[in-house]
Amino acid sequence: SQLQEPYTAVGYLASRLPLPPLLQLRPPSNAAGWTAWDICEAWAEKRGYKTARAARNDVYRAANSILRLAAEGRLRLCLRPPGYAAQKGEPPLPHPSF
């Protein structure tokens, strides 16, 4: 789960899973809502991940930690194959953004 830029993958997970409640994170100070960076920063704060020199929140380490949770199956994401609902005669599930 080591990526050069893991924040996009965390954003993908966050768009499909309610990460802040699952990880029990405190809401960000901005009113715009959660971004992938906000989730990683809150997770770093909660877990105590700090950079060595400046003692800032280590968001890169936090992002890799979140991806590791997903890779280990502790954060479960289940996607149906394309056309599954039509083949089984089930109505398609609405996307959470609607």
**Spatial shape:** elongated
Integer-rounded radius of gyration: 16 Å
Distance between the termini: 30 Å
- How many domains, in number, for the residues? 1
Low-confidence stretches: none
Order of helices and strands: HHHHH
Features:
GTPase activity, elongated, mainly alpha, 47% helix, 98 residues, GNL1-like, 5 helices, GTP-binding, nucleotide-binding, GTP binding
Describe what this molecule looks like in 3D:
The chain is an all-alpha fold. The protein has one domain. The chain has 5 helices and no strands. The radius of gyration is 16 Å and the shape is elongated.
Topology:
Layout: H1 7-16, H2 19-23, H3 36-47, H4 59-72, H5 84-88
Helix pairs in contact: 1-3, 3-4
Short description:
This protein is mainly alpha-helical and 98 residues long. Helix content is 47%, strand content 0%.
